[in-house]
């Protein structure tokens, strides 16, 4: 047994196969991967890592298993799935996903089924495929790791708020105390409705303040552009980049040539691209004349705006502004994606209902979250005023808004 001091949960206790897994190089690599990517450009304290987050999710897996009096086998499966759910992350967490189109979940599932991790799991009599299925959402225990409210979100919201200084009211102790498994879904007893609302509100507020902050998004998109150039120029293999940590990636970019090196130097000196245009999903004129929900409209927009179309649009904007195409970055992030239909509340009469039906706050979050999702165009600071003049009239037409 090993006890690790944690600023969020006080102590995290590791036992059994978790002890061997944590000491593997594959897991130790997570010490060098920042949980919040480039958010430290805005919040200097946001340098916490996937390593400590994974330990926290493992801990909460044990807590909720004990609360629900789950059998030992289920407890071990949930805790180990929490420990390993982020093992596939590349440097700066989500940067490589925007570059390659692959997801860290896919890579986590693959890495769990190969190499030394397999050896540690099988030595303890645990099937690696069951762990991979739990992380991938294909297991009866997956809701603990992948739901609208799960142990992963509980830990990262608490941890991200702590290290950025953004105040939230997340109460993981209360949430785990009122959590129940209803078939293949997690639900929460009505007595804990306030704690559910507090977590959802924290998630709602963290998007504009942290996850979608324009400065962090600019730095991340610049870094993505630099990595793309590194790969396309043949200076680095994509597979090799996925296995790096933050320090190794930065070193590779600093040692590269051409624009990838220049972009990294600009990030180092905090000479970040600025917003030349932006619009939130809730402001899209199409919403006024459409029977589609905002999220359905967003799905159509994302389907229509392929990578190739975005690159063509970037070149057209660059032509209008008389600058290089590489100096225009269109940021079209994934939406917040909160689906409040999935929030189940068990009433005192034992009936399970949607959280929307018992909380006005929950019912309005689906639409309210769209205020925080923005399409942006980033350009070098010296070109910002010109971009604002040109793009105000052009971008709605370009995006068929």
**Main sheet?**
4 strands, mixed
Shape: globular
CATH topology heading of the domain at 2-186: Hypothetical protein af1432
Q: What is the CATH C-level name of the domain at 2-186?
A: Mainly Alpha
* Number of E-state strands: 9
Helix/strand order, N-terminal first: EEHHHHHHHHHHEEHHHHHEHHEEEHHEH
Distance between the termini: 58 Å
Whole-angstrom Rg:
22 Å
Give the percentage of residues in beta strands.
5-15%
What is the overall number of helices? 20
How are the strands of the largest sheet arranged?
3-4-7-8
Low-confidence region ranges: none
**Which class of secondary structure composition applies to the elements?**
alpha+beta
CATH architecture grouping of the domain at 2-186: Orthogonal Bundle
Mean of all residue-level pLDDT scores: 91
Helical content band: 40-55%
Tell me the name of the CATH homologous superfamily of the domain at 2-186: Hypothetical protein af1432
Question: How would you summarize the topology of this molecule?
Answer:
Layout: E1 2-6, E2 10-14, H1 17-22, H2 25-28, H3 50-67, H4 72-84, H5 95-100, H6 104-112, H7 115-123, H8 128-136, H9 151-164, H10 172-177, E3 179-182, E4 185-189, H11 193-211, H12 214-232, H13 238-242, H14 246-254, H15 259-268, E5 274-280, H16 294-304, H17 307-321, E6 329-331, E7 344-346, E8 352-354, H18 355-358, H19 360-368, E9 374-379, H20 384-398
Parallel strand pairs: 4-7
Antiparallel strand pairs: 1-2, 3-4, 5-9, 6-9, 7-8
Helix pairs in contact: 3-4, 3-9, 4-8, 6-8, 9-11, 11-19, 12-15, 17-20
């Amino acid at each position: 047994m090993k006890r690790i001091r944690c600023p969020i949960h006080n102590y995290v206790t590791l036992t059994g196969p978790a002890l061997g897994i944590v000491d593997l190089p594959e897991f130790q690599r997570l010490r060098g991967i920042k949980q919040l990517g480039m958010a430290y450009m805005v919040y200097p304290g946001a340098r916490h890592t996937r390593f400590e987050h994974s330990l926290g999710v493992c801990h909460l897996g044990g807590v909720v298993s004990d609360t629900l009096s789950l059998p030992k086998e289920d407890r071990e499966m949930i805790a180990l799935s929490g420990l390993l759910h982020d093992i596939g992350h590349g440097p700066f967490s989500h940067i490589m996903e925007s570059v390659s189109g692959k997801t860290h979940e896919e890579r986590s599932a693959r890495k769990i089924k190969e190499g030394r991790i397999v050896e540690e799991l099988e030595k303890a009599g645990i099937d690696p495929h069951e762990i991979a299925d739990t992380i991938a959402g294909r297991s009866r225990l997956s809701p603990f790791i992948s739901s609208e409210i799960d142990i992963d979100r509980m830990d990262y919201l608490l941890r991200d708020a702590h290290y950025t200084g953004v105040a939230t009211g997340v109460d993981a102790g209360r949430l785990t105390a009122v959590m129940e498994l209803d078939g293949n879904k997690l639900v929460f007893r009505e007595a804990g409705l306030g704690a559910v609302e507090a977590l959802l509100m924290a998630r709602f507020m963290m998007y504009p303040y942290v996850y979608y902050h324009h400065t962090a998004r600019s730095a991340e998109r610049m870094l993505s552009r630099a990595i793309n150039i590194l790969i396309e120029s043949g200076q680095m293999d994509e597979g090799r980049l996925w296995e790096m940590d933050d320090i190794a990636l930065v070193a590779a970019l600093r040692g590269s040539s051409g624009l990838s090196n220049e972009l990294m130097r600009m990030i180092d000196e905090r000479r970040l691209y600025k917003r030349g245009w932006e619009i939130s999903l809730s402001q899209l004129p199409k919403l006024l004349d459409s029977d589609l929900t905002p999220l359905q409209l967003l799905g159509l927009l994302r389907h229509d705006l392929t990578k190739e179309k975005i690159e063509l649009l970037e070149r057209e904007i660059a032509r209008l502004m008389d600058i290089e195409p590489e100096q225009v970055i269109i940021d079209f992030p994934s939406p917040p994606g909160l689906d409040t239909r999935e929030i189940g509340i068990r009433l005192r009469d034992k009936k399970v209902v949607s959280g929307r039906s018992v909380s006005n706050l929950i019912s309005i979050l689906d639409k309210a979250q769209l205020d925080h999702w923005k399409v942006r165009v980033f350009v070098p600071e010296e070109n910002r005023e010109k971009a604002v003049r040109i793009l105000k009239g052009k971008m709605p037409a370009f995006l068929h808004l």
